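Hi R.,

Here's the chain you asked about this morning:
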Amino acid sequence: MELNVLFQTSTPVIGVVHLLPLPPSARWQGSLQAVIDRAVQESVALASGGVHGIIVENFFDAPFTKGTVDPAVVSAMTVVISRLRQLVALPMGINVLRNDAHSGLAIAACTGAQFIRVNVLTGVMATDQGVIEGDAHRLLRYRKELGADVKIFADVLVKHASPVGSLASENAMANSVADTLHRGLADAVIVSGGATGDPPTAEDLAQAKAAAGKMPVLVGSGANVDNIPQLMRSADGVIVSSSLKRWGQIEQPVDPNRVGQFMDALSASI
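And the predicted structure, written out as tokens:
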């Protein structure tokens, strides 16, 4: 996969829209319009700041299920993303947390979104939701059945998780990247730190890029104006959220000024 075909640049910045709690999550506030309004504001702020793509997540639905989300989540995300697609002319992705890639793919196919993020595509991870097993087999066949040209961006050794079995080794990163790309058939891999807002280590990124070869490697967490030059030495693009929020706080809305500052820092580093 060539990133410049999808994003019109070989080093894309993908901004994240964290949806307010959706029905029937624990913190659902009862107004889908409020969710839409916040998502519109954040998408416009990201676009006006110059990002190359947007990914939408049901981030504030925590605590998450490790399996299939409630149908109301799928319905709500479809409504929100359809609205955003009318307003923002950028490539759009979907991440249905914690790992409901099938729902993400279905939403993308119906709304015209171009990619999804899958936290666990291959292997087995111990997470705060329990043990999650990758299911690339069914996901890739489902994409074929839908006839959808939706790209799959897959995490390797995803944050808030620990590998189980053979992946828990000194070559874990390289092995996971190879399995995700060559056996899971991901279109790109994502490397993150241990938790939301934590950057990956330079060693992990370098190992991932060496194992990925010509396939894209994206930074999945922790990028900011100070470390983006170092991160991009071994990465092809970045998914960024926390550092673009007002005061850098995850619960705050996107700050267009911080988006512009981040894009300037990236431009100066490449």
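The chain has a mean pLDDT of 94.

Let me know if you need anything else.
M.
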